[in-house]
Amino acid sequence: MKKTMLFLSLIMLLGYSSGYSQDSQTFLSLKQTGVEEFLQKYPEYDGRGTIVFIFDTGVDMGIPGLTKTSTGEVKVIDVQDFTGQGDVNYTPAEKENEDGVDIYSAKEGKLKIKGKVNRQSSGDYYIGSLNESMWKNSSSGASDINNNGKEDEDFIFIVFPVEENGKTIWVMYLDSDGDGNLDNEKEIRTYRDQKESVSIVTGEGLTALFMGVNFFPGEDKVNFHFDDGAHGTHCAGIAAGNKIGDTNLNGVAPGAYVISCKLGNNNYSGGATVTESMKKCYDYADSLSKVLEMPCVINMSFGIGSEIEGMAVMEKYLEKLAAENPYLYICVSNSNEGPGISTTGLPSGAKNVFSSGAVLTKEVGADLYGATLENDIILYFSSRGGELMKPDIISPGACTSTVPNWGNWDRFWGTSMASPYSAGVMSLLLSAAKAKYPDIKIPTQVLFAIVKESATVLPQYKTIDQGAGYINVDNAFTLLEKYIKSGQLKNFETYTISSLAPNMPGDKAPALYLRDASWVTGNETFTFSATRDKFGKNDKFYRSYTLKSEADWLIPMQKNTYLRNDQPTMINVKLDKSKMQQPGLYNAKIKAYRTDFAMLPEFEVWATAVIPYEFNTGNNFTISGEGELAPGMFDRYYFKVTEEVKTVKISMNSVKGKYQSARYILHDPDGKEVSVGKVLTVTNGKVENRNNSYYNLIPGVYELVVEGYYQAKNKSTYQIEIIANTMSWTKTDNLSADHNQIYLTNSGKEVKAYKISAELTETRTYLYEAIKAGDTKEISFEMKPGDGEKTFELGLSKEDFGKLTDFAFFIQNEKGKTLESSGMSYIKGEVSINPPKKDSAVYKLVMVPAFAENSGELGVHITEKNKLSSSKNLKVTSGGKSNIQLYPMITEAIQVDFSKIDNVASKLYGKIYLKNNNDETEFEIPISYTK
Question: How many Cα atoms occupy the beta-carbon half-sphere of 154 within 13 Å?
Fold first, then answer.
């Protein structure tokens, strides 16, 4: 997805460039996926005759690797900006001639430019300015577009209509060198017609951005399409790059054309989408695919976290689009919220889109990151399935690729990189099918099913990690040919699956998902409902299936089933508890094969059951584990938090005499990341540890993933302890001088001794804002020197979050310069700012929710936190002493002394700390004080 991680600089790569050869490239791996072998056997099936749409931050069409296809044609054939970031308005101009020099000036305003152009207007003249302020809040580094040390310059242009072959077209002349003269400037037309880029002349160095221009005369504007985020250009190079960096390094499908649809505005954090920008990209590709004579593959490496998997507005839109256009091949990234389960993002949970998880190949790991891997590994952040049968596939997700010239990095990783790889594979297969079987069209879902079934299953991973397995184009083409030759395209069908998922609305999801299966006895019957989607549009239908489970604990209660017409079928299963004795993750699938034709499974159902550890007196409220992990591999531990267990301490230890380079990642009951521990590296054989405590946890089943660091030089031996601190307390909000007593109860079986203290650190104000689709909301505020840090926490309901494709928010000064920015990956997010050092300043919080569709509204709950310039320390006592002894199941009282708190303008917030004899905080109890 768009939240990529960037490593090392372009400069460090220059030393490698001379060693490339097409059959051994290691910076963008093609070998393990069969791409290398496929292109050696079928060099003419390299994507030519297909189009890859890139829905992203834009594509820089002037970068080596994206200028030409393998057959020498222009690669980027169309560019569209659906964010409005590149919009520039123009105004009527007057043309005069002074001493033989043409001068164009605005009828209203100060814009003026001189010079001779090659054409005469068939109507009026218009004038406008491309100003560098367009990039002042962009994170691109391209704000000084001509590289002369200034960031506020104007580049004047004129536009006007001309008659050509009986048609009216619009042209532009841009002062690209900023000298105030249009002499010798080239004529610019709509990019799609001319397929020529525009650039601003730089005094020194490389051109910052190559741009394409589109004209909107009915709206008195032009649009400059560019990539000031690098993300889109990088993805385009992976999918279809040809001779990247003027070397022999290629993307997956170097013969394919590219169309760029800009949906991300890089003035916002992460290049966030805006209202309907994502939908407009799909609408555009949908309409083009119906008139073009070429297969159209979409790559969208964009998205956010999912709150209600598969049920967001954008996901429902994509589900409908995919059903109505069976020849639009939509590839998406599965999100970067892993390694926890139930982390597939939005909108990759949409039915019938093809989502990819991310792999780090051995050769990329070695040459780009210095890793010594035994095997290709799934990258730790790659999102996993749960309620959804996702990802569909895993693909290489780390590589060198194309980036704009302003970029200082060109090696990215993420599921953002895996998705264009999969899109490139689709392009190769469609290119081959078009050349070899020109009279046959391959329906999207047929191609997706073939790619999945031909994938290589990696035995070290579960289905929930890898989906169908590791993508392989050579295997897929072999299976595709068998499918075509057998005449089975006309008999293909798709299905809708539903089963029990207690955490979902209505308790239903596409997969059986039991986050807490501790209540399962083995006698229960769980049911999958399977319904055909009428993919073939035929009403008369009868088909029987043989069911095969891949795990001995997942037992189908029938061997065969069938579907007739529109009737659903029910697949009943039991979980064999005798095979599920150990706590942990149980994940498997059942495949349904046609009894009369077993080339492909017709459909499959996934089941996931988690047996968590439970804290009790029998295990002394401690969960322990140990293991040995190869670099990039992991172990999973699940534990249950209850109302009595609000705090846990996690301790990761090395083992004496053993090497370790490992860390842990903690996910909450919804799959959201709580914490990533720092890597603990021990090479001297000594015993070292990392301890962290997590307070006030919500009840549910947590997942702790221990990961061998991918750059480890050997296997990591580790020990892990999860210790529950069983403490409960009475209400701690709205305390006062008269209501200052709190009761603590130790629910464990050991005596606990603590030093107790407290502090008040901040004030809070609560706001609510309703925002309609397409609108932004601003909140002005003032800060003075000496103020404490101010933080805005934003929160949405899960239902409102599902209306969005992004939610960008940021803090700007009075000049409109963004000082701090953030965005929502889930229903909560925050942004902070420190006070000015000298004079008081007025700022504004700007909120820009990106609605999937331009309708409706949402409610934003805002908590404004103002940190006190100095915290107020409080005395806390028990029986007059600043320490307390807590015996098992005995309740003790503590008193908080607020007598020295005065001049309180609003409620104060802080914490009570309980520290052990080693001065380690074991509990943080939130409190609030009202005078």
Answer: 13
